[in-house]
Design brief:
Number of strands: 19
CATH topology of the largest domain: TIM Barrel
Bound molecules: (4S)-2,6-dioxohexahydropyrimidine-4-carboxylic acid
Shape: globular
CATH architecture of the largest domain: Alpha-Beta Barrel
Structural class: alpha/beta
Strand content: 15-25%
Helix content: 25-40%
CATH class of the largest domain: Alpha Beta
CATH superfamily of the largest domain: Metal-dependent hydrolases
Distance between the termini: 15 Å
């Protein structure tokens, strides 16, 4: 049974309705019953949100939950708890599990495990190609019927342009966007970090930003050719930003996301942290001009959404030479703090835009009925304490993995409470069972 909650006295931000101001939110029976000023509700449990931001539940549209197959890194139980701890009420999980999620049965398996062990909503992405091999298409229609919300071979760029053309066209017939990990592998070659000053100084093989942009350019052409919706995952290069900006000006069905680490770090971090493999991600963090372009693109709406690319790995994947280390970092439990500290506090972004990019924007572009505080909608709510000071301690993560370059960072701002369908699942950093 779901209780009545009155979230009182916060700053309500609801991008779907263009509201940003003082207000109360009443939750009844798992749905939003009212939003207004000085609401009264007999018998409701009152949550004092004074000084806090009350936002639609955050949606992370790019998460690796590793189940099935790599449960030692993460599973649906631990990954959804990490999400709740970080203020996310929904995560969209990628298909590069073992085996990859490329059949109807595997989509149903993930959803069944979510029902058994999850504490937030999980929306699965299915593979574009069988086994993520880039050769043979999966069956968009039955994957959609089983519950997939998009197709992606994330981690593996789809090199074959004709295959990708067919993929986006079929996916569009079933209303599914295709999320592309853009990288021209012939140009990125074996690059393990951004190609630039620091790769030269450090003697590591680099991959240029142009390797990403080349495939973005191809996708822009395919979107124009087919009218299909292509979403560019984890944009890292200023050259990609420019292509996405022009595609949007032209009215093409291209959307994009950016990660907190690409917004916060530059390639100098590989030097600063002495080749620490927790700085290795794919795509890599790039140079200052790229970081600036990403920040501006997020601010201006050229990049629609923030997504963490939460990519858990264990020590045996990371405690090796830089070139052999698995790429990826965990992101769910640091996202809000990093973005609040590094983007909102210095004035790059206001809370309104950040909340939109983390809730309404990803929900809308995936066609999910989430990310809004509209009356009658699901009561998924994230309450943010923008002034809370804390230090990142990976030992306290709910994730099974600790691969973060942000250990020891002082941050201001965190999720204070996570509410899923009217149930409080996290309070003051503690996930409730
Ligand atoms: O850094 C990354 N890690 N990038 C990807 O595309 C895949 C991901 C993973 O699965 O570990």
């Amino acid at each position: 049974m779901s209780e009545r909650l009155l979230i009182r006295g916060g700053t309500v931000i609801d991008p779907a309705h263009g509201y940003h101001g003082p207000g109360d939110v009443l939750v009844d029976n798992g749905v939003i019953a009212a939003v207004g000023v000085n609401l009264d509700a007999d018998g409701a449990k009152v949550i004092d949100a004074g000084g806090f931001i009350v936002a639609p539940g955050f949606v992370d549209m790019h998460v690796h939950l590793r189940e099935p197959g790599e449960e030692y890194k993460e599973d649906i139980a631990s990954g959804t708890r990490a999400a709740a701890a970080g203020g996310f009420t929904s995560v969209v999980c990628m298909a590069n599990t073992r085996p990859p999620i490329d059949t109807e049965g595997l989509v149903r398996f993930v959803l069944e495990r979510v029902r058994q062990t999850g504490v937030v909503n999980v929306f699965p992405v299915a593979a574009i190609t069988r086994g993520l091999e880039g050769k043979e298409l999966t069956e968009a229609g039955s994957l959609r019927a089983a519950g997939a919300v998009a197709l992606s071979d994330d981690g593996h760029p789809v090199a074959d342009a004709e295959l990708m053309r067919a993929a986006v066209q079929y996916a569009a017939m079933f209303g599914l966007p295709v999320i592309d990990h853009c990288q021209d592998s012939s140009l990125s070659a074996d690059g393990v970090m951004h190609q630039g000053y620091w790769s030269t100084v450090l003697g590591l093989r680099g991959q240029p930003g142009e390797a990403e942009a080349l495939q973005v350019a191809r996708d822009v052409m395919l979107a124009r050719m087919t009218g299909a919706h292509i979403h560019i995952a984890h944009v890292s290069s200023r050259h990609s930003v420019e292509l996405i900006r022009r595609a949007k000006e032209e009215g093409l069905n291209i959307t994009a996301e950016v990660t907190p680490h690409h917004l916060v770090l530059t390639d100098a971090i590989v030097n600063d942290m002495g080749y620490d493999t927790n700085t290795k991600t794919n795509p890599p963090v790039r140079e200052e001009a790229d970081r600036r372009a990403l920040r501006e693109a997020l601010r201006d709406g050229v990049i629609d959404a923030v997504a963490t690319d939460h990519a858990p790995h264990q020590q045996d994947d990371k405690l090796v030479e830089y070139e052999y280390a698995a790429p990826g970092i965990v992101g769910l439990e640091t996202a809000i703090g990093l973005l609040s500290t590094e983007l909102v506090e210095p004035g790059w972004l206001d809370w309104g835009r950040l909340v939109a990019a983390m809730s309404w924007a990803p929900a809308r572009l995936l066609g999910l009925r989430r990310g809004t505080l509209g009356v009658g909608e699901m009561a998924d709510i994230t309450i943010i304490d923008p002034a809370y000071r804390w230090v990142v301690d990976p030992q306290r993560f709910y994730s099974k993995s600790r691969n973060t370059p942000f250990a020891g960072r002082s941050l201001v701002g965190r999720a204070h409470m996570t509410i899923v369908a009217g149930h409080v699942v996290m309070q003051e950093g503690k996930v409730l069972e």
